[in-house]
Each structure stands twice: as structure tokens, then as C-alpha cells.
Amino acid sequence: MRGMVAWLQRLLICITLVLAASAMASADPLPSWDDSAAKQSIIAFVDAVTTLGEDYVVPEERIAVFDNDGTLWCEQPIYFQFIFAIDRVKALAPEHPDWKDRQPFAALLADDMKGLLASGEKGLGEIMAATHAGSTTEAFAATVSDWLSTARHPRFNRPYTDLAYQPMLELLAYLRANDFKTFIVSGGGVEFMRGFAEHTYGIPPEQVVGSSGATKFQLGPDGKPEIVKEAKVEFVDDGPGKPVGINRFIGRRPIFAFGNSDGDQQMLEWTAAGDGRRFVGLVHHTDGVREYAYDRTSPIGKLDKALDEANTRDWTVVDMKVDWRKIFPFD
Amino acid sequence: MRGMVAWLQRLLICITLVLAASAMASADPLPSWDDSAAKQSIIAFVDAVTTLGEDYVVPEERIAVFDNDGTLWCEQPIYFQFIFAIDRVKALAPEHPDWKDRQPFAALLADDMKGLLASGEKGLGEIMAATHAGSTTEAFAATVSDWLSTARHPRFNRPYTDLAYQPMLELLAYLRANDFKTFIVSGGGVEFMRGFAEHTYGIPPEQVVGSSGATKFQLGPDGKPEIVKEAKVEFVDDGPGKPVGINRFIGRRPIFAFGNSDGDQQMLEWTAAGDGRRFVGLVHHTDGVREYAYDRTSPIGKLDKALDEANTRDWTVVDMKVDWRKIFPFD
């Protein structure tokens, strides 16, 4: 009897999926994309690799990788994870009275951004260590989740996860509907991103590749095993680190890659250099009204060398202002 | 028209899957397992977490992890990857005339296993570096693939991939049919295991977690991007390294874990310590006739502390001789 019920459940699920899939196939899968060259290049690629023919790619090899900050969600006025770190320093300050007289914490607590930036990489490292290390992985995940549910973006006054790009959410769903496996490959902290990637993008934790600190397995005070986050940086998933991270965590070369800054250049080159048809895309932030306009000289998400390379090759450059009818789900 | 064809293709695939699934549901999913307590504990667990009720687990959380050497395939008379390394030293020897007079290579080339083992960890490290580093990841994958297609196990005189355990192949398929995502978490080299895991176990490269050496992204002589394997050890996925690797690569705690040696103990503890119902299993090599019999004093796959812990807890210990009707697919 159980078997019969399970049989019917599966058949029902399948028919639903098929109807949904065929509905998607007939409707426009990318409604927030203007019907421009960028959108056409995406659809032409997906049709080519999913249709039996010279460009056909078996589903197992349909690996798509996406940078996160500035590609899947907004990264201005500064990386959201850094805002999380700033909020954490303020929340933890009462337990650290010495921070009032110690840089870079003193500058941060006084909202002195100039002084904070003056502390440079070393200062940034101290802030990341103070806010991302010392707790168990489970306690950290809870902290990230609390922050995401309460923090608001200074300009849009919405939860940061509302600032995912609607056209990219449609692209992720379109690729998965065509049997692609979608991955994040980002310089952001892997445990920070895993706090929202599944809910916001439909990307499960095991498909999130990012920068990470060292961790240690130990028996906790209660004798229960736990994994503790340490202050030591273990892997920086940026620049040349991105293809290295792809090789380490995914173990196959992607056939589809999307980024938005020079930190994505080597990931895009690695993807483009594979045999067979490939798709390589860049988001160019050109819309200062609906989002932000920045590229070659921006301290955040600098897009200079990669833009030059894209222009000399057949990479797809998305002009946000022109190619995206809608930027955020709430627009 | 294309949409219609795709629609029909999908429906056909689905109906096939449903029929297959329901066929499996009715037939015995684990025919090579004796109808003993071990088999019953597996089926009871899978029924519990896949049936709506207090033990139900949503499919996304159905993470199952398996050690490889001695758990999914044979590890005697010595880890197969070490035999690969030995064969590689012999194949590369002509390019390294100095090896004839340099330990540990001289001992290895003279088939002096005693002398080779006398070189200890340092010697083993030199052999691994000489055989696993210096090439691109793609060249290394080709070397592994060539070796797997030609090398033969000294006792069974078959390709090493024939020495996967039939009962575990059935278990992997049974778990996947119940919407589990199956991962390898092994001390073996990740790039070595990725050379056969998909074909032999149906586990894709991105679900293989293992030990690894550092790699470097660079532009090759032809100006094409490449990833080169370096001699530096980057991560040892053994003992406490296994839960660390699970956290780093999978990002969720498994609900099902299977191992066979003390190197798996912390992975099993980490799995067992999660909330809700868990399955923890150990393969005990008790069949010297059909395979090998070894445990507490074996230099390879030593099973001592983990066996004691299993006996004091509700872990499932598989008695190979009694619980497995068939060990290898060719039996």
C-alpha cells in the first residue's frame, strides 16, 4: 500500500514538474531582461548546449558559476558582509572596553570611516577576526541569520536579501530548469553566504564556494563535538583564487560564468578557455538612478581589466541601465 | 514545436523514472545484504526520515557521507592510491636517473618494501610529491584515468574499480532513490578519487571531499589558463579533518555516515551529535576468505577506538562475513 501511495505521489510530482517546465518553456523565462543582445546571447547559449547537436553538453557537465557581490546582489555603498562586521563590532563593544582606545575599533565605534579605512588591510583583518572567529560554526550561522532578519540597507531601507537582482534570480531559475547546476563562487565568506544563499537564490550550502577562515574540530564544554572558527585566513576566493576554488570545490570546469569585477577575471578566463561552447558574462553597473553606476575607478567592485578583456572577446557585457527592465524584485 | 517535443521528452523521462522508482520500492533495494540487524537498521532509518512524522527530514537535509578506502572499495594490501604512486615512480624513473641512488626512490625501484617503509612519512611525502605534483590538473586526471584502465589488483587480478563493494553500491543507489545526496569524505586525494567516483559510484566530482595539495592558476606556455598541482599539502581530510572538511565543502551536518576505521571516528561523532534521528555505520572487515580480515592492529584501515565507541553506542557495525552475501560485483 505504502509503495502504491509513494508511486502516485511521485507521478503527481512529476506531472506537476512537467507542466511547470513546459509552461516555462512557452512563457518568457527572463521577463525582467530587455529583449536585447545580452538576453539573446544567454538564450542562444542555453538552447545550443541543451539541444542534441555539435554544442550539446550532457546535464552533469552543465556547471554554472556566479560571483555574488555585484553580480547576484548589490555591493554598494560597501560589501554587505563588511556592514555585518561593523554592526557586530558595535554589538560586541560592551564586552571589549579596550576597543574605545584601540584602532581600528575606536575609529569604527566613532563612525570615523576615514580613520577606519586608514587602518588598511591590517585593520580590516582585525575587524574580520574579531567578528568572524572565536565562535562555533552553528553560533555564527545563528548570528548571521539574526542580522539578516533585522539589518536594513542604508539607501533602500530594506533587508539586504531584498537587494538580489530580479534578472539574475530569473537567470538562475532558467538555468536550473535546463538542468544546470548553479554555484556561487565569490570572495565573500562562505559561512556568511550560506546564511542566505539557499533561501534567496535557491543555491544550497554545498554549492557555495567562498573565502574561508580556518576551523577546528573539538569536544565542547558539554562533551559534544563542535567546529570552532579560528582567526587564521584559510582561503581567499578572489582573482586567481577563483579558478583554484572551482577546481577544489567543484572539480569540473564551468561552461557558464557570470561576474562583475576584475576579481572575476581569472574565473571568466578559466571558463572561456574550456573546449566547446561557453558563456561568459559581466554585469556592468551603469544605472545610478535605480542602483549605482561605477566601474574602472570604484574602490568596491572595480571593473577595468576584465571590461577591456570582455570587449576584445565575445563575452556578454550586461548594461544594467539598458538590459534590465527591473533590477530588484520590489521595483 | 520544439517546446512540444521537450514536453513529451520530459514526460517520457518522468514516467520512466516513476516506473523505475516504484519497481525499486517493491523489490528488495539491498539484495546483497543478508537480512540481518545491520540491513534492518538501514531500512528502518531511511523509512523513518522519508515518512512524514517526528523523524521526517526534508530532502535538502538528507546528506549522506561515506569514507572511500575500506568503506566503498577495498584498501588492501595497501591503499590503491599508494600503488598508483609506486607505479608512477617506476614509469617516471627513466626521466630521473638520480632516483636509483636516492631514497626512498631507490628502495621503491628495487621493490624493497621494507626499505621503503623505513623512509617513513618523509619518504612517503617525497613519493607523493614526485607523483602527484608538477603537472596540470587536466594532465593528472588523464594519468589517473590511464592507470585505472590498465592496472590490476595483485590478488584479484582485476581493475581496482572492480573492487567496489556491491552492498555499498546498492546502498548508495537506495539512498539516492530516497532523495539523499551522497558524498565521499575520504583521506584519499580528491583529484585521484574524482577520476573514478562518478563512473564507479555515481558520485559526481563536486560531491567528492578528500585530501588535497595546493594548486596554482597560471597562463600556460601557449597562453592558455591552466591549474598546476604543487608539492605543498593543503588539506588532510582524515580524523578531525573530516568534520572540518564536511563543514568546509558541504556546509551542512550529515544525517547518515559510514566509515570503517579510526580515521572516520570524528566524522561519525559529528554526524551522531546532530539533532534528530541519525544513522552511523562502520564496516568491520571480518572476511579473510572473500576479502581481508583486519581491525585493531592493522597498519592499513586500523579499526580500534571507533569500534569501541560503536559498541558503546547505537552505531551499526557491519560484520562483512555475515552481513554481506556478496562482496564484489564479480562474486
From TrEMBL, chains A, B:
The protein's UniProt keywords, in alphabetical order, are: Hydrolase, Signal
Extract the GO molecular function terms from the UniProt entry.
hydrolase activity
Q: Which SUPFAM superfamilies match?
A: HAD-like
Which is an annotated Pfam family here? Answer: HAD
InterPro entries, alphabetized: HAD-like_sf (IPR036412), HAD_sf (IPR023214)
Signal peptide location in the record? 1-27
Domain of life, source organism: Bacteria
* Protein name as it appears in the record: Haloacid dehalogenase-like hydrolase
